[in-house]
């Protein structure tokens, strides 16, 4: 395996990305404690190079930084050498502030948790010199979209980075509703998973409004349920979710 990537941080996003990349890349993880990087390796199920910050050498490496935005200033001075490229998944953290870590090229990426199944939707922005490489690297773990500027990336964070949590709320609520009507929990979960799987495919080729029109029969069940969603201001709630998440990204 000739290609390699170094993760800084051993949390959920690093693990999701490593799961998606570990079949094509050798993995190094830089973390704070031996226990944490060993746990990471066990969860990944693939041998990795385990490094602590005091031994961290990023020289000429492709780095994916996966700590919390607030941790950047603390870890930057610990990283010795000049990275070939620094990819950051840190929400709301500007390309300018990434320069506290020395690298030839900088790129912000906003993947989502589906990276672990090779199905992330990842937005990217940064140094165009590494655009092709960046699209290929993150293309390994799903779909990719190169955006024009960092404002767009912050909005993309609100939509596709945070999005799995919003859809999880919908998924859980739909199951709760079915259980309230008397369906067994396991059956409700099976139906919800099948629903999301089929919907995920349909929405690739069908506009959401047309999809809805095709499901809704005059005076039927869908119209009754859809009316309840509108009454509950789900549409407005979704738009507000994107606004609030975008505002938050700007403040991180
Ligand atoms: N979760 C998601 O779905 C997504 C997350 N992101 C971004 O990914 C990044 C990581 O998030 P996520 O993986 O969810 O978070 P986790 O809490 O799972 O991981 C946080 C990581 O930061 C490390 N860390 C915490 N405090 C410090 C510190 N003081 N100094 C150095 N390292 C520290 C943790 O190390 P330790 O184990 O030692 O505590 C851990 O490796 C964030 O910047 C987030 O914006 C982007 C897209 C999606
Ligand atoms: O909640 C967050 O801040 C991170 C960024 C996108 C998803 N999780």
TrEMBL record:
<keyword id="KW-0028">Amino-acid biosynthesis</keyword>
<dbReference type="Pfam" id="PF03807">
    <property type="entry name" value="F420_oxidored"/>
</dbReference>
<dbReference type="InterPro" id="IPR029036">
    <property type="entry name" value="P5CR_dimer"/>
</dbReference>
<keyword id="KW-0641">Proline biosynthesis</keyword>
<dbReference type="InterPro" id="IPR008927">
    <property type="entry name" value="6-PGluconate_DH-like_C_sf"/>
</dbReference>
<comment type="pathway">
    <text>Amino-acid biosynthesis; L-proline biosynthesis; L-proline from L-glutamate 5-semialdehyde: step 1/1.</text>
</comment>
<feature type="domain" description="Pyrroline-5-carboxylate reductase dimerisation">
    <location>
        <begin position="150"/>
        <end position="252"/>
    </location>
</feature>
<dbReference type="GO" id="GO:0055129">
    <property type="term" value="P:L-proline biosynthetic process"/>
</dbReference>
<dbReference type="GO" id="GO:0004735">
    <property type="term" value="F:pyrroline-5-carboxylate reductase activity"/>
</dbReference>
<keyword id="KW-0521">NADP</keyword>
<keyword id="KW-0963">Cytoplasm</keyword>
<dbReference type="InterPro" id="IPR028939">
    <property type="entry name" value="P5C_Rdtase_cat_N"/>
</dbReference>
<dbReference type="InterPro" id="IPR036291">
    <property type="entry name" value="NAD(P)-bd_dom_sf"/>
</dbReference>
<dbReference type="InterPro" id="IPR000304">
    <property type="entry name" value="Pyrroline-COOH_reductase"/>
</dbReference>
<dbReference type="GO" id="GO:0005737">
    <property type="term" value="C:cytoplasm"/>
</dbReference>
<feature type="binding site">
    <location>
        <begin position="8"/>
        <end position="13"/>
    </location>
    <ligand>
        <name>NADP(+)</name>
    </ligand>
</feature>
<comment type="similarity">
    <text>Belongs to the pyrroline-5-carboxylate reductase family.</text>
</comment>
<feature type="domain" description="Pyrroline-5-carboxylate reductase catalytic N-terminal">
    <location>
        <begin position="5"/>
        <end position="83"/>
    </location>
</feature>
<comment type="function">
    <text>Catalyzes the reduction of 1-pyrroline-5-carboxylate (PCA) to L-proline.</text>
</comment>
<dbReference type="Pfam" id="PF14748">
    <property type="entry name" value="P5CR_dimer"/>
</dbReference>
<keyword id="KW-0560">Oxidoreductase</keyword>
<protein>
    <recommendedName>
        <fullName>Pyrroline-5-carboxylate reductase</fullName>
        <ecNumber>1.5.1.2</ecNumber>
    </recommendedName>
</protein>
